[in-house]
Amino acid sequence: MKVLGYVNKFNRGIARVKNELSENGNPDAVFDYDKIGVFGVTVYDALFDKNDDVETREKTREKIIVIIEKNKNITTKELAEYTGISTKGVEYHLRKLKEDDMLERIGGDKGGYWKIKGIQK
How far apart are CA 29 and CA 97, in angstroms? Predict the structure, then answer.
């Protein structure tokens, strides 16, 4: 790769990737060196959890809905504090709730509020 001009230094990429993943909250990358001359890398999403299942995700979304019912003006940061998951995790669940047509954001990030579909409050 160096000869072809794709890299400028040896032995820096893997350490850099590990550092970036750690800073982003991703699990460690899995390196596969079993093949001669090449290697593989598996990178997991920051929200990936090997022990996570559908039931856990649904409980988290139910918890978010209950919190929003009590405070329609709540911020993503506050939701993260109440649920115990990262703000990125909350954003993920909010996006899924909106895609499932269970939740709607009325107005902008500042000054807007959440509307739970089917509930008039």
Answer: 29
Q: What are the residues whose beta carbons fall under 8 Å from the beta carbon of 2, sequence distance 6 or more?
A: 8, 10
Rounded Cα distance between 2 and 13, Å, is 12
Name which of 43, 42, 56, 41 is nearest 89 in CA terms: 56
The one-letter amino acid code at 63 reads K
The backbone torsions φ and ψ at residue 66, rounded to the nearest 5 degrees and listed phi first, read -60, -45
Q: pLDDT of 40-55, one tens digit each? A: 878 777 665 555 667 7
C-alpha to C-alpha distance for 90 and 75, rounded to whole angstroms: 10
Give the chain's domain count.
Answer: 2
Which residues form the domain of 33?
A: 13-42
- pLDDT, average across residues 84-100: 88
Radius of gyration, CA atoms only, the chain: 20
The pTM assigned to this predicted structure is 0.56
| Whether residue 104 is found in the same domain as residue 77 | yes
Please name every residue paired with 61 in a beta bridge, in sequence order, or none if there are none.
none
User: Would you give the distance in Å from CA 23 to the centre of its chain?
Assistant: 13
